[in-house]
Amino acid sequence: MSERTYTFTSESVSEGHPDKVCDFIADSILDACLEQDPQSHVACEVLCKDDQVVLAGEITTRAEIDYERIAREAIREIGYTDPAEAFNADGVRITRLITRQSGEINAGVVRATDDEQEQGAGDQGIMFGYATAESPELMPLPILLAHRLTKGLANDRRSGKYPWLRPDAKSQVSVVYRGNKPERVSSVLVSTQHAKDISQADIRDYVVNVLAPRELGEWFDPDAEFIVNPSGSFSHGGPSADCGVTGRKIIVDTYGGAGRHGGGAFSGKDPSKVDRSGAYYCRYVARRIVEAKLAERAEVQVSYAIGRAKPMSIKVDTFGTGDPVRAEQFVAETFDFRPAAIIRELDLLRPIYRLTTNYGHFGKAGLPWEKPVAVAV
User: Fold this and answer.
1) pTM for this predicted structure
2) Assigned fold of 5-13+141-237
3) How many CA atoms lie within 13 Å of 83's alpha carbon, on the beta-carbon side?
4) Lowest-confidence segment of 2-16, 112-126, 177-191, 348-362 by average pLDDT
5) What is the pLDDT of residue 106?
6) CB 10 within 8 A of CB 173
7) 8 contacts 174 by C-beta, under 8 angstroms
8) Rounded Cα distance, 349 and 61, in Å
9) 125-160 per-position pLDDT tens digit
10) 323: Cα within 13 Å, side-chain hemisphere
11) Which terminus of the chain, N or C, has less C-beta within 10 A?
């Protein structure tokens, strides 16, 4: 029987996308708390629209935090500094709706109900981690390439070489697979915010002849379909044009749809929230399964109950590329999914979360759940 051929597509968004602006502000606040008080409990939500920024959520910390300064610095770092736009670092109005974490939740986190010596999960939920041998980063190729394009746009904007580039952008990459192996890129979509005085022809020339060949590298195919700013002019963007909210880009943040998702967002949450730390650990474990050559593709699921340290369940899927029983045995004998153990193993009580916000939480060197580890099976 011939190998099945199919096309899989994933998207990425830039750091200037309205939702990502909110994510970056939230993670900036989280890092500021952890820098002063590693035991901070943070659940920060952000909304941005026009000249308004709303900071909301629950934060319990001994840190002294200037929320307004952090928000403005984050917006400035992204690149929204033009006073002619409604949304700019110096001109936005900031509303703060932040209280302390619920005492009932805090009690369950500090002392687990199933083991008083352990830390309980900060919420119930399911988390997934995924890894695949189809790229050196052990990431699905479509999301990896889509992130390269949006990050490339940001790098070119910051370099000053293309002064007409603006912060808001999206990309989308379609990859043709044969027998679950990537063969070629069939289409590339880039939508980028720009200055009003640049022509769509010049933008297309830059994307097709500069950005795509450089960022796609060996996967660049001049015969692929290139779609650039398909709606036409995109000079009005960012939160001045569209509302942004924390936690809406959960597929962009993970595997581009190639792996399952439990539904919990990451940004603005400290590692006591297993939505974040549990998903990071599942990715770490999935990587180890692939690195150990127990499978070419691996997905790990974990589930928790609020206040309990021990997971409710752990499941491994190798999608027919390895022995799932052997992989599950390896996971059971090697890894500790209790929240405090995850935090210790990955050293998560550090201000590292601004590094995760943009261009995916996975597949980037330097993050503790992405470190290659020698595996003995």
Assistant:
1) 0.95
2) GMP Synthetase; Chain A, domain 3 (3.30.300)
3) 2
4) 112-126
5) 64
6) yes
7) yes
8) 13
9) 999 999 999 999 999 999 999 999 999 999 999 999
10) 9
11) N
